[in-house]
Amino acid sequence: MSTLKTLSPGGVSPYNRMKRWRVRPTSHDGRMRARSKVTATKSFIIGTRGSPLALWQANEVAARLRRALSLAEDDVKLDIIRTSGDMSQASGQALVGGKGAFTKEIDEAMLDGRIDLAVHSAKDMPTSFPDGIDIIGYLPREDVRDCLISARFTSIEDLPPNAHIGTASLRRSALVKRIRPDIRTSVLRGNVDTRLRKSAEGEVDATLLALAGLKRLGLADKAAAILSIEQFPPAVGQGAVSITARTGDARAAAAVAAIGCVDTGLALAAERAFLKRLDGSCRTPIAGHATIQNGTVSFSGMFLSDDGQQVFTASGSGPVSEAAQIGDKAARDILAVLPASLRIGAA
Predict the structure, then answer these.
(1) Are residues 258 and 33 in contact, defined by beta-carbon separation less than 8 angstroms?
(2) What is the largest distance, in Å, between two alpha-carbon atoms of the chain?
(3) 138 pairs with which residues across the strands?
(4) Do 313 and 302 touch, CB atoms closer than 8 A?
(5) Which of 144, 217, 325, 335 could bridge across to 234 with cysteines, CB 3.0–4.6 Å?
């Protein structure tokens, strides 16, 4: 079952290569149960970026592996890798390479055999990977909502006329302009701490951040307002932590199966299929969110013009075994009505 909506300005939506996720027995909190013990014949080396949030995520994966598999501290180690995306942020230059800029050097380390696993924010993952690398699992998902960061204002509606919002996300920029066409947006890059500091110093009237990252860093109190999913739908993969490994690495797959969340993987299968069909990137305003309940996946997706004044939504639901097909169908429904002027890069 699927539905398609084209929204007028200000309207509100209700809100890799694709792998078929096999549903395995789970515990009460949705985590996969390992079917057999993993014997550590050598250390697991986890590749990660070096930002505070990336390190939190990698350390969380490492800690869960140690607990689930009874591994010693030295059996799971981190390898901090500087990526092209990190270098672009540090220099203030425009991001080259889209989402892949934050994974390229980590992928190379994996293919070279220098790391066994890699941990990424799922929303930073490209829709396809180099041959030989697969997503093999996700941690349980955090809150998917965005939040407003401002020292003076507590809602987008309360911002003054022609207010200035800093964000590097075209999705967030388009969604803000959908609500308030008068607002000016400019690129504001950097990790969470950098963007919080720039907002506090008054470089912009406000910025927007993922609530999941703030919660993981113990900074949720910095949010001036939490934005509803209906008003401000999240990026594909927002709030999820993905784990990749070399294709066919049974040892890595068995280890991650002990800590991975089946429901998150199923939701991401729908979301990433939607994104892949639309060929979404950091240069395309696209939102997508799926939930899993009682064996059913419910998905809603959105495609916006850069100024937020043209909005196209589609939704669908069905059995979790069809999660990827549901996301793909929603994307095809949008493509069927998308004007040629907005189809740049779309499949």
Answers:
(1) yes
(2) 62
(3) 242
(4) yes
(5) 144
**Catalytically annotated residues:** 124
| Spatial distance between the Cα atoms of 322 and 328, rounded to a whole number of angstroms | 10
**Secondary structure (DSSP) of 223-283:** -SEEPPTTTSPPPTTTT-EEEEEETT-HHHHHHHHTT-BHHHHHHHHHHHHHHHHHT--TT
Please state, in angstroms and rounded to a whole number, the distance separating the CA atoms of residues 181 and 297.
34
pLDDT digits (tens, 9 = 90+) for 238-251: 999 999 999 999 99
Closest CA to 45 of 15, 10, 14, 80: 80
What are the pLDDT digits (tens) for 321-344? 999 999 999 999 999 999 988 876
Q: Using the structure block, give the residue that is written with the tokens 């994996």.
A: 110
Q: Which pLDDT belongs to residue 6?
A: 52
pTM for this prediction: 0.84
* Cβ-based neighbour number of residue 54 at 10 Å: 24
Q: Which residues pair with 146 in a beta bridge?
A: 210
User: Per-residue pLDDT averaged across 81-85, rounded?
Assistant: 82
Whether residue 13 has pLDDT greater than 50: no
